[in-house]
User: Fold diguanylate cyclase from Vibrio diazotrophicus.
Amino acid sequence: MISPQYSSTRRFIIFIILGVLAPVFAWAKASLMTPNSLSDYYVDTWTSTEGLPHNSINAIAQTQDGYLWFATWEGVARYNGLEFRLFDRGPITHMLDSGTRALVSDQNNSLWVGGARGSLSLRSGFTWHSQPAAPSMVNHVLIDHSGNQWLAIEGQGVVRRQKNTDGSYGESVWILENISAYRLIKNNANEVFAGTEKGLYQLSEHSSARIETTQFDKVYYLSLSHNGDLLLGTNRGAWRYDGKELSLIDPRINNTVVTVVEQDSAGNIWLGTINKGLARLSDNTLEFLDASKGLPNNRVLSWYQDIENSIWVGTNGGLIRLRNAPFMSITQDKGLVGNYVRTVLSIDDETLLVGTSNGLSIIKQSCPEPALNDDISLSVLSLANASDGGAWVGTYQNGLMKWNNGSIEPILTDKEGLPTNEVRAILEDSQHNLWIGTPFGVVKKQPDGTMQHFTQQNGLSDDYVMALAEDELGHIWVGTGVGVGYWDNDKFENLELDQLEQAQYAFGFYIELGYVWIATDRGIIRYRLSDQSSALVGRPQGLPIDKFFQIQKDDDGYFWLSSNRGVWKINADRAHDVADGKESSIVFEHFDETDGMASSQANGGSNPASAKLSSGSIYIATAKGVASIHPNKLHTLSSNPLPLVLQSVRFDSNYINPEAMPIVPAGTSRVSINYVGLGYVMSERIEYRTKLEGFDNTWSERRNTRSAEFTNLRPGHYKFLVSARYPYGNWTEAKVLYEFDVEPLFWQRKEVIVFIILSLLVLIGSGVFWRIQSLKRSELRLKQQVALQTHELRSQATMFEKLSHEDELTGLANRRAFDSKLKELFDKARESGEVLQLAVLDIDHFKRINDKYSHLVGDHAIVEVVDVLKRHIESDTLLARWGGEEFTLLFVSDTHQSDDYLELLRSAIEAHSFDDVASQLKITVSIGVSSSEYLSDYEDLLKLADHALLKAKRNGRNRVERISV
Assistant:
């Protein structure tokens, strides 16, 4: 054993503290995210259909930059969370064969790749480096603490290559010969071990020693446990070696061929087998995942835990990932009484009562069990808490029942006064009246037993009742198939919903202080108690679907909306702002099967179909079990590391190695940069922003786009920065992914420019000298004539130039000059992401001014309007005379600010006195405006602004009108 020596006691103590505490902290975080059972993991599967080059995954590794790599018989696949990229045999990779067997991540973001025909390559960053080949297939690679190379070779043994001072490797030294070596490992004492077809060997620089045992013959796999023990996968189970003794990890698999054995960050032992699938040993509980439960193939070849604590398993038939998804589904397989869940109810701080088409269940700490002591089959539709304990149960065929502590008793059926035995909603109000919703109206049962039946004839909006709720004022809200209303002062008051996208179905209520939120077939509706006003948050406000069933609010201020197409998360305060008209659109996040839901089809034809426990967990009734999420779990997933990497760089159409080529050749018109955030749990949701320092110092929001393109960059130095985040999360620290220089063209080089300037100066000086001499030989009269003619020509040229770009009457830019400037600014705005506002201003009824006064007065009026505009426009606004009485204004602004700005100009003209032009002359203007957002051509911007002006004229003139895409 080699003991490292340190020159400083303090250095030694710090090393020990970090060595002890770092695994503890890592284990603690991983434990919080470790599912209770193997079946709680969400399973993703990839095969050749999804982009893998081959279904046998021989090895898995993750490099320091965050990429995941998979070794197959058809090359190495690199995964970025969204797509695979293949690297196979060729001059770039220096692989001798596409069949790869070994992947080992090394320092400096390097990856060792070993495989068939003794192929060995090293990838460092963007560059592949060839290595001396081995005599046979490389099964594994080990780089020891000194940087020396150890290779486990099929049918040959183990070879060691010493690292030289120049970074190359010396001659091969055989440590083991004439034996198949499968795996190499270095323990905490820097001792090297080999797993072979003849057992376990301890290796040194020049010799080997077999660890004698009769318990097994072959060692296929080696890894290290948290305490430094060796973990062995053998032909007879999994074993632990502490340096002195071998001990069986679990006797239940002692006759199983174990191909993989690893310990995860939470301390669980994972076992891959040759024909029984994958096993996990956790707190002495042994669970199996095999082909019958979603494993692509029962032969496990590889295993890896990534930096997000997801488990990747390679098999003979494909790749799976076991991950913590935002949602967890509690289904019949886990003990729920039936999968088709219609209603869920919180009966105390940590217990959920669940009604399905097959009966009642209780869920406590995510563990379901039957809620009834007797085996009674019930089709449950609705639930409600009873004030004296237990819960009211609405059924499909058995009317109203009451559950308490495992027993259930009938309360009301059609024989006792219910219009039908189908009970879809129940409410016990604050006065202990019991409200029972059915497809044939609602029944109110008072504490003294008196019953009233309400239908459309009694003022109910519809007989088909699906939802009931009570607000803070004691109103009883009733949701039906054709509208919604509330009971107040012994009568029903129905809401007018026709103006709200003609909403009809009211599936559920969420009562908030001062408000009632209603889930409908046209979005969600907010009813404000103070002024009895209703407002919609639906498709017109940005929600992508119409129909929502339930609304739950979490502890962080977000609404969770259930639907037939998954669950939607929106900010509650933003929803209020949209309802109040302060915001025009709602931002949402969507969850479905890819986020852990067994089914994205939530149910909502009866109530309650969602619930929240005091822990903050939200539960939703679906067509396949109960979907649950704890928002804190989503926060944890969003806080996972999010490495940012540069994927590729193109100069025009040519891909380049950005590490080897930081210079953009002169004449390159386009630089294209691809990047990605290596987050694997919610890859599709990652949002990006970029900045190119040297070009623009502001961030450009890219949303989910993973590429940026820059055209016609000026010569100079540039830095490309990227920042990323998950939705509602914080932006990561900006990272410089690519730093480069754009070379100047020949005529743009400094020395060439200096030479040209000097040459021009010499030429000009020579010309001046010659001219002076010539003038001296000329008569004075001729000099004066030439000077006069020169002056006249220059004046003429200046006048013509001015007339071609300037309006003679007002001195403003004319239409030709404005068109040119508009095209230029439009192109720049597209590149920078800025929004241009174009306004066309027309003097109202200008012909009347000419007719009533004179054309001369009309000209004076135009000049006076221009003076008013000049006094009020901002310095960066481009003002031009478009023709006649029409003017154009071009500036950068957002929609709200620009409309206020133009309204200010319109008001200023309206308020201005034109008495100096003509007595009692009043002038107003109409303004049409449009923005460049979503437009690809400046001519479209002009057309929209012109249409907006026509709209302003049609609507009565003296106003500002906008038309946008």
Q: What stands out?
A: The chain has five domains: 14-55+141-324, 329-632, 648-744, 748-803, 808-962. The radius of gyration is 39 Å.
